[in-house]
UniProtKB/TrEMBL annotation:
It comes from Roseibium hamelinense. Keywords: Membrane, Transmembrane, Transmembrane helix. The chain crosses the membrane at residues 6-25, 32-52, 64-85, 115-141, 185-207, 214-235. InterPro entries: Photo_alph_chp2. The keyword tRNA-binding does not apply. This is Putative photosynthetic complex assembly protein 2.
Length: 277
């Protein structure tokens, strides 16, 4: 029963937290400082919670480790979507300066974000590597691995890679997506996700403690959601409908331009853009 409850909590958290991050990311320049202050406080709180429960193997410590990692992840996601921690290249693929390869150009758009994630994993490894409670460490590693898999697939080719949840300030990233084909790597990613999911389900079923069952169930739920997100890349389904409530709180508007009369209006976040993005 503990595992079923953990799965339900994980699914609700994924849905609700994604909507909250979406709202925060659309706040723009006027509220960017306040938003980052809030998520930084949350991230520091999550880090403190991870440190305080590193040697505890209770049901409560399992959830604390899980949510502590999510708070750290939310900081990275918000900083990226606000355009504060992305990369040195902030223009479309065909815009100046031209890079030697598409991969190099794409990597430079997210370089700082990826390095920040890697540094966080390294830090968590040092903090929790020898700890009894490693729920937070494995949660963050799972999130990073699944997100990296998604990024690789949208770069190599996925028919429905364009996501309506991407803020206007980062719309240039869509020029690096390939939607004209389905990469073979997708099937490898799908198989990998399935194997991890089945392994975690087995670990939850055969866990000899409530702590182990909860941790495995939380990770299994997130792996299942990652598998679903991979399918969204190839299926003609608008996953943005899941967060319609968040979009209504900070809806998109049309940006009027005089450059070309025949050019279609481009959606823009209703909140001001982030400076420098």
């Amino acid at each position: 029963m503990s595992g079923v409850v953990a799965v339900g909590i994980a699914i609700f958290t994924w849905w609700f937290a994604t909507g909250v991050v979406m709202i925060l990311a659309r706040q723009g320049e006027r509220h960017a400082g306040m938003v980052m202050a809030l998520v930084t406080i949350a991230a520091l709180g999550g880090l403190a919670a991870l440190a305080l429960t590193r040697d505890s193997l209770t049901a409560v410590s399992a959830y604390i480790g899980f949510f502590g990692a999510l708070m750290l992840w939310a900081w990275h996601e918000t900083a990226f979507l606000l355009g504060l921690v992305t990369g040195p290249r902030r223009v479309g693929l065909e815009q100046s300066p031209i890079e030697k390869s598409r991969f190099r150009a794409a990597f430079r758009t997210v370089r700082d974000h990826e390095l920040a994630l890697a540094a966080t994993i390294l830090f968590l490894g040092l903090l929790l590597g020898g700890a009894a409670n490693q729920a937070g460490l494995w949660t963050f590693i799972l999130l990073w691995g699944m997100r990296l898999s998604t990024k690789v697939n949208i770069f190599l080719g996925a028919p429905h890679a364009v996501n309506e949840l991407l803020p206007h300030r980062l719309s240039y990233l869509e020029t690096y997506f390939r939607t004209d084909r389905l990469s073979r790597v997708f099937w490898i990613s799908l198989t990998g996700c399935t194997v991890v999911l089945l392994s975690l389900i087995g670990a939850a079923a055969w866990a000899n403690s409530e702590y182990g069952q909860i941790v495995a169930s939380l990770l299994a739920a997130f792996t299942g959601l990652a598998l679903l997100e991979h399918l969204f890349l190839v299926l003609p389904v608008k996953d943005s409908a899941l967060w319609h409530w968040a979009a209504r709180l900070c809806p998109a508007k049309l940006e009027k331009t005089n450059k070309t009369a025949n050019m279609p209006d481009k959606p823009e976040d209703s909140c001001p853009k982030t400076a420098g993005a």
